[in-house]
Amino acid sequence: MKYPDRPWGSPGFAQEPYSLLSYDIIYDKWDDFGSPKIAPPPKVASYGAGVGVSETGMGYYLGGWVTNASMSGWSNGRTMTSNFYTPDKQPRAEGGMVWIPAGDSLGMLVYLGGIVDPYENGTEAPQPFDEVFVFDTMGNSWSTQKTTGIIPQNRRHYLWGGLSVQPPVVNATSFNDIYILTLPSFTWVKAYPDHKGNATLPPEYGHYSASCNMVKHMSQLFVIGGTYTDTDACDLAVNAWAMHNFWTGTLHNEGDNETYWALYDPDITKNVVPADVYNVTGGNKDGGAKVVSPKGGFDTGNKPLQDLFGRRPEIAERTPTRAIPSATGSPKATASPSPHPKSKLSVGAIVGIAVGGAAGLALVLLVWFYIGKRVIRRREARRHSAMTQVHHGSYGGSVTGPPSAVSPQTWPGSWTMGSEPVSPQHATPHQAFSLSQVPPTELPTEHPGTHDVSELPQYPGGSKSPFSSTERPHG
């Protein structure tokens, strides 16, 4: 069985004390806030579960590994940590955590998967997906809740994909499946592949350490980059900014057309519930779930958690804390955070999280379909002026042969029009492919037949991109 090198096993030491960095996406600059001013200073861990919440301006980080590569001056061996907020004081690492707009004004965190040291003696054990941990960010308390349904096998080390938790449950080195966890019913639903059966994909399609980002009102999920566990190939994103797109409500928000992987559509204004979910919870693609609690009820002691899911948070609209360029290039006056709530979240949300394999890889969507009415319509865009992108028309072209798993030494050549969009799993490493003329979303886009362009933000100095004509990101 083949495994990639563990990143913590490579030589190298942290040369400088930990420093908190911030990147301003409008002004294209980094700021260094120095070391945290708390006593005792935090142990600096890698491969923990972190989440940033733009709605509240908060960030959270749970667990991880402390090594001499993550923290300068660390002289002990590789140690799993229970620093920061933990559900049970047990050291944890390589799990996943997301924020959901439920409960009170700071929302809630959901943590799942990864590995745990149950005896606090260096033992590594998988954290099964038949239970998840929910953190009340306002009340500063954890709840543990059992799950039901088609439960994923144990997985670790994931942004997308991951390394196996030994021993594997099945004779496989990689997975490439997609599961959905519905809340507050805490039910797992399998969406891909073969959501009506138990099909899996060959191990060479599995990879880990990709990134997943919800876009367009959480209707679509970008999967970018990553490393394959059973081949020396790399994802095409390294060379051509290729991205794989998963429709959370199936293609074109139809809900029940059974097509999840398809080209990105910039003109979507809402998300919907897929049939795989509402066939389990009741309701339809617009929400209205009938199953609003776990099978058998909430676990003992979880009445506070049940009450949290019965509340809808009001979250204050955030405003900039520094001058923001206007559409004409002149900065607007610095604004202060609003002291009063200005908008109410709708009663449903979809949050993306990637989960790595109990032998490899899987993508898990954590989905919250609340008791009510309609799926989320994201609030109108709050980013003004420089952060605005205008889209006209629609993209043409599609992908034949997925933009996935090509050798890092292989360049695909010219881009050609394709005919059929596919998932990132249907290519054999090193196989030839044809890529659509759909450009990456971060590049200015001229739409076929219209000559309209989706512009990047205007950056200081008049440039439209933080990259020069000779500098491009490398994955």
TrEMBL record:
Q: Which organism is it from?
A: Fusarium culmorum
Q: Where is this region: Disordered?
A: 309-343, 387-475
Q: Membrane spanning segments where?
A: 345-371
KW Transport (keyword) present: no
Keywords from the named record = Membrane, Transmembrane, Transmembrane helix
Q: Record's InterPro entries? A: Gal_Oxase/kelch_b-propeller (IPR011043)
- Which residue windows does the record flag with biased composition (Polar residues)? 327-337, 406-417, 425-439, 465-475
Compositionally biased tracts (Basic and acidic residues)? 309-320, 444-454
Record protein name field: Kelch repeat-containing protein
Q: Does the keyword Cytoplasm apply?
A: no
Q: Which domain of life is it from?
A: Eukaryota
